[in-house]
Fold this sequence. Notes:
Structural class of chain A: alpha/beta
Number of strands of chain A: 7
Strand content of chain A: 15-25%
Helix content of chain A: 25-40%
Mean pLDDT of chain B: 91
Largest sheet of chain B: none
Oligomer: heterodimer
Radius of gyration of chain A: 19 Å
Largest sheet of chain A: 4 strands, mixed
Order of helices and strands of chain A: HHEEHEHEEEE
Low-confidence stretches of chain A: 115-120
Amino acid sequence: MVKTLDRAMLVRARQVAQSVPDPELPMLTLADLGILRDVAVTGTRVVVSLTPTYSGCPAIAEIRAEVASRLGAAGFADVEVRTVLSPPWTSDFISPEGRRKLAEAGIAPPRSRSESSGGVIPLTLFARGPRVDCPVCGSADTVRTAAFSGTACKDLYRCRACAEPFEHVKEI
Amino acid sequence: MGFDNAYEAISEESDSGHRWAFGTGFTDPLAGVDTRVPAGVDGADLAKYCLMLGDDALIMSHRLQQWLARAPELEEETALANIALDLLGQARLLLTRAGTADGSKRTEDDYAFGRTEREFRNVRIAEVADGDFAGLVARLLVFSTWRLALLVRLQGSADPVLAAVAAQGVKEIAYHRDYAAQWVIRLGDGTGYSRQRMEAGLVTVAPLVAELFAPSAVEERLAGVAVNPAQLRPEFDAVLAEVLAEAGLEWPEVAGLAGVSGQAGRDGVHTEEMGYLLAELQSVARVMPGATW
């Protein structure tokens, strides 16, 4: 009986934490973005583990507050949000659903990182950036206009087929 | 979230009480992370090492922030702001790690705002002011190439917190290095005038390079935890050679900047510009001690 209740609370806590929107990419939930590492319930206490996307991501304080506030509203008074640094977040953690939602919002999702891990990172010297398909018309004829953008996780592109500028979530 | 106007959001009384706008109300960046010092590692030395790497990031970040509203184009300003933000994030983690490693429980703010110039342990290349954009990209190329080589190796540190901070930082610094390299190539391989400015930029940073590879006593004592910077030189030279060849530039042969009785940034001996930088960086904390925002 107690076990069933615990499980029901865990399911509910997980649902609440998973569905918190990211403040900078509000079309994505924390689950879509892949930064939610774990939700654990012990008695009435909920522990949520998160991994920041970038070392300096200013949204993480906002996300922590939002997770605690939404869980509080759902009846969980005792909430702890922990940081998990290892393994670090990579753009590969963005779920297929998250990629679909990004493209739908006109933001090109990151490609999967095919590089072999470890060792020295090669110098790319790619002034044009990696090849990214236009999220509006699907053309591969795009050009990177800036290596950084309004948030740490994105850069800027322009499509030469439909002329639309668009953002792209960087592969890290 | 979800306010009709910005003023409503700013005046929001949040549950946590001290958060008044997006991006404020900073919390411990290591909250929930196991910060116990591994057996056999000297906590005081580990803290000193974290300050070295943390100060490099903090001071470099501050110099980059000074470019905001001065950069030649909006895209470059955004890039420099993002690079500064990544480095500030690394600094926050490393300074917080320092306070947990030596048991002093000092916070990132205590270290950033409560130390004097002689207590900062950053290498001097992080603190010098940039004369122009070419000087900046030369400095950023040198700093990022060196720091990337360092962080790649630090991923294998015996301190799991340092190893985790390094693993995240490697991916960020790789982008910074690419950004700087592309500009060095563009300016070096551009017009006669841009090339001349780029050459002058290299001349200003070259004297600050030797210091990057001189191991301090702390780094030598922390074998297995710290990276000995002397071992970074071959990779650094190879990357610089590749970029300079592409840019059609040559590395200037100039003497290293002397320290004082052999002491330099890692010993707390800085250039004249460091005092002015700290005066600005610490100004608000000095006027309003203990203020949070």
